[in-house]
Amino acid sequence: MNSNIWLLTFADAISIATTLILASLGAILTERSGVINLGVEGMLLMGAVTGFVVADSSGNLWLALLVSVLVGVVLSAVHAALTIGLRANQIVSGLAMVIFGTGLSQFIGKPVEGLPRPVIIRPLNFGALSDIPILGPVVFGHDLFTYLTWLLAAGLSFYLHRTRPGLLLRATGDAPATVDAQGGSVARIRWMHVIAGGALMSFAGAWYMFARAAAWSQAATTNGIGWIALALVVFASWRPLRAIGGAVLFGFTLQVPFTLQAEQISILPPTIVAMFPYLVTLAVLVALSTPRARRLLGAPKLLGQPFVRDER
Amino acid sequence: MKRRKVIAAAFAAAAMIVAAACGSDDAADEEVTEETEATEETMAPAEDYSMVKAAVVYIGVPGDAGWTYQHDQGIAYLEEQLGIEVTRLENIPEGAESVATFDKLARDGYNLIMGTSFGYMDPMLEVAAKYPDVCFQHASGYKTAENMGNYFGAMEEARYLSGIAAGAATTSGKLGYVAAFPIPEVLRGINAFTLGVRSVNPTATVQVAWTSTWFDPAKEKEAAQSLLATGADVIAQHQDTTAPGEAAKEAGAKWVGYNSDTKAGDFPDTWLTGPVWNWGPHYVKMAKDVAAGTCDATPYYGNMADGMITLGVYGSGVSQETQDLIAEKAAAIIDGSFLPFTGPIKDNEGNEQIASGASASLGDLLGQSYLVEGVIGSAKG
C-alpha cells in the first residue's frame, strides 16, 4: 500500500472541496431565506465559462473572477425576479436555470473550447512548511481561495447564528409572516440572499475552472458538481461549517476512483466506482426527503414556498 | 488574438504566392506555362467535385488539439484539394443521438457521411442500411456494409516508437498511461508503447488508469495526476485532449502526447513526442470515390509506410542518440523488416500470447484483448 498516494488523494479532496463548499454556501444562504435554487449546476458552468472567456481576452484573473461573480448576480436576479417577484414555482425556475446555464455556457464557450487555461490559480508557496510530512500537502498545499473559503464558511456561520441580520434571515426561511409582521421586508431579505448565493455559486465555477479543470469543455467541465453541492446542503443540515466536512467527504469520493486504480484495488470496475459521488448524493437526498427528516435536520420550514402577505 | 494572427499569416502566405506567381512572368515561357498548370491543379481542381455533399460527425471539437483537431485538419485538406465544403457536426454523443444525426444527414441529401468515433459504428450501420445510395465511412471501428466503409491505421507502429523515447526518458522506471476504454485499439496501443519502452528499458513498468471517456479534460487530468502520485515520471495517453500533458507539466514530468503535435510548443520541457494521425489523403480518396459513383467499403488500415501514421516532433527531452535509434526502427517498420508485435510476447498474467519468432497477424492485432508483460493494470478496465 502506497501511503503517499492516499495522502495526495486526501489533499486533492480538500482542494476540490473548495468548489463544493463555495457552491453549497451559496445554496445555504439562498435556502435559509426560504428560496430554493436548483440551478447551481447552471450557475457553476456560467461562472466557469465567462471567467474563462474574460481571462482569455484580458489575461487578468481578477477581472475574470469579478465578471463571473457579476454573471452569478445577474442569473440569480432572474431567479429572484421569477420566484420572489412573480412568485413562480421555485423548482421549475431552478431547473430552467440549469438548462439555460448549460446551453448558454456551451454557446459562449464554443470559440475557446479545448484551449489551455489563460491563467491558473496556483497553490500558495509556504516554503518549508509544505515539506512537513502529512500536514504539508494536506494543510499547506492549497491556493489562496481555498483558505478564504474556510474563513468564509466560519464567517457565514457566525453571521447566521450570532448576528441580528442572520436571525432575520433564518426567520425569513422559517416564518416569513412573523418577519413581515415585525416590519421586516421578506422580499428584500430574500432578494439579497438569493443574489449573494448566486454570486458564490458562480464564483465556485470560476475557481474550479482556473484551479482544477484542464480546459473548458462543455458540460463536462463541472461534471455534475452543482448537483452534489445541493445534496451537500442537506447533508450539512443548512449549517455553513458542516459543509466543509461534507465537502471533503464528497471530494474524496470524487477523487478515489483513480486512486483505487492506481493502487490496483479492483473489487469493482472503475466505471462503477466513478458513480460513487452521485450514488451518495442520491442516497442522501432520498434518505432526507421525508418531511420528518427535514424537520429534524433543521431545514428552513417554509423552504420553497413563495410568501404572500395575509395568506398565512 | 491567436486566431487573428493565423488569419494574418494566411493572408501573408496568399500574398506571397500571388507575388511569386507574378514574379514568374519574367521567367522563360516554358517555365511559366508549367507553373500556371501546377497552380491551377492545386488552386482550382481540374475536375468538378461539387456533386460530393460531404458531412463529418465529431465526438468532440476541433479545439481539443488532439483527435478531433487532427481529423479536422484532414477535412480541411479535403476541402482545399477538391474545392468542396464539408459540413461538420461537433460534440455528437455516441448512441441514440448519433443515429438521429446520421439519419438527418442522409435525409438532407448528403452522399458522403463520415463519423470519427468508435461508438458511431453500430448507429452508422443501422442508418446505412436505410440509405443504400449514401456512402458512409467510419473511423476506428471494424464493421462494414455495402455502403459503409471503415478507415483506421496501425497507430501501434508510432506508439512503439514513442515508447522508445519514453523508455529512454524515464528515471524512475515507472510510466503512466491514461487510457479511455479497454477495447482492442487502446489495448494494442498500450502494448505497443510498453514494448517500445522495454526495448530500451527492460525493467520499466507502465501503469494504466482507465477514464471511461474519450474526451473529458478534467477526468483525463485527474487520471494523470493519480499516476504521477504513484511515482510515474512519464505520462502517455490514449485520450483526445492535452489535459494529461497539463498534469505532467504541473508535476514536472515528461509527456508523450497523442493524435497531434500542434500544442507541443506549449509544453517546452514536458513534451517528448507523440504518435500523430494524418487523415487528409484518405479523406480525399473517399470523396473522389463518391464522385466516381462508388463507395469503397473495404476496410482501410493505414500505416507509417503510406503516411497515415507518423511520429510527431521531438521535445528537448529526447537525446540525439534516442532519435537516431527511433529513426532506425522507423525505417525498419516502414520497409516491413520489423514488426513491433513479434514473439516471444507474454501477457501480464504470465500467459504466452505470441510464440517466439512468430508475429501477430492483422486479425490478431485488431482483436487484441490482453496487456503485455510490464503493464500494470487490467485489460478488462
Kindly list the characteristics that best describe this protein.
heterodimer, A: 312 residues, mainly alpha, ABC transporter involved in vitamin B12 uptake, BtuC, 14 helices, B: 381 residues, alpha/beta, Rossmann fold, 2 domains, six-stranded parallel beta sheet, 12 helices
Oligomer: heterodimer
> How many domains in all of chain A?
1
Radius of gyration of chain B: 22 Å
Unreliable spans of chain A are none
CATH topology of chain A: ABC transporter involved in vitamin B12 uptake, BtuC
Class based on secondary structure composition and strand pairing of chain B? alpha/beta
Rg of chain A over CA atoms, rounded to whole Å, is 20 Å
* Percentage beta strand of chain A: under 5%
Shape verdict of chain A: globular
Give the helix level of chain A as a range of percent: over 70%
Mean pLDDT value of chain A: 88
Your description of this structure?
The complex is a heterodimer of chains A (312) and B (381). Chain A is mainly α. In chain A, 70% of the residues lie in helices and 0% in strands. Chain A is globular, with a radius of gyration of 20 Å. With 381 residues, chain B is of the alpha/beta class. Chain B folds into 2 domains: 47-154 and 279-302, 3-Layer(aba) Sandwich (Rossmann fold), CATH 3.40.50; 155-276 and 310-376, Response regulator (Rossmann fold, 3-Layer(aba) Sandwich). In chain B, 42% of the residues lie in helices and 16% in strands. Chain B is built from 12 helices and 16 strands. Chain B has helices spanning 2-23, 29-43, 67-82, 96-107, 121-130, 155-169, 184-200, 217-229, 243-251, 280-291, 320-334, 362-366, and strands at residues 54-57, 86-89, 112-115, 135-139, 148-153, 174-179, 205-210, 234-238, 254-256, 271-273, 275-277, 300-302, 309-311, 345-346, 352-354, 375-376. In chain B, the strands form 4 sheets. In chain B, strands 2-1-3-4-5-12 form a 6-stranded parallel beta sheet, sandwiched between helices. Chain B is globular.
